Input
Amino acid sequence: MFLGEFVHTIDEKGRLTIPAKFRDDLAAGLVITRGIDRCLAIYPMEEWRRLAGQVSALPVTDRRARAFRRLVFANASDAIPDKQGRVLIPPRLRKYASLDGEVVVTGLNTYIEVWNSAAWDEERERVEGYDADIEEWAALGI
Output
C-alpha cells in the first residue's frame, strides 16, 4: 500500500530515489508511465499486470480504446530499483511531466504518482476545493 507525500529530487542522470517506505513493494520491479494529469504513474509489477490486462481487454475496433492503449503502453518503461532505491526516469517521461530537480512523490494506495513540485501545489489546491463533492461522496458511502 502506498500512502503519503514525499519531496525528492531527480538527479543529474535523470534518476529518482524511491521513498524508503515504498521500496519493498517495488523491489521486484515496476513500470513507469504517463499519468493522466501531467504527472508520472509508477506501478508495482503485480498492479501493472492487472492494469495491462484491463487495457488489453478493450476492443481494438474502438478508436478511443486504441488511443488509450497507445498512451499507456507506448510510454511505459519497466525498471528495477538499484541498491540505493533509484530508478531512471526516461527523458521523454521527464519532459512530459516537467520533472527536473525537486519533485513530489505521492502514494495513491495501489500506485505512486510523481509530480513537478509547482504542478503538485496547483493540483493540491484544486483538489482541496472539492470539499462539497467529498461530503456528497461520503454521504453515498464512497
